Amino acid sequence: MRIAGRVACFAARHLRYFADRIDPANAPRALHWSFTFERGEGVRFREDSRGCRLWYKTADYDRAHTEADSAERERQRARDLEAWYDKMVRLQGGAR
Questions:
Q1: What is the pLDDT of residues 19-42, one digit of tens each?
Q2: Nearest 5°: phi and psi at 39?
Q3: Rounded to two decimals, what is the model's pTM?
Q4: pLDDT 10s digits, 39-56
Q5: Rounded-to-integer distance, Cα 47 and Cα 35, Å
Q6: Of 2, 29, 36, 76, which residue is least crowded by CB atoms under 10 Å?
Q7: Is 44 in contact with 38 (CB distance < 8 Å)?
């Protein structure tokens, strides 16, 4: 049983290696972050390699950057509207 487990682990590691080389555009990528479930706290993200490693697909990585950029634009627009509103209130002599 122990030998079969080692052989399976060896095979899985090498299959993952060759899959990344054959189709690098669709291969999952590993982050240097991991996560654990902490009692009373929930999910904790870690940089000390304890727990489960986080993986992502290339398409998800690109989508995350696109959505992060659009979220930043929305936050900037909200800040601009807030500044405009404050300016209008000051011009009218009122307090907010």
A1: 777 877 777 777 778 888 888 888
A2: -65, 130
A3: 0.39
A4: 888 888 888 878 888 887
A5: 9
A6: 2
A7: yes
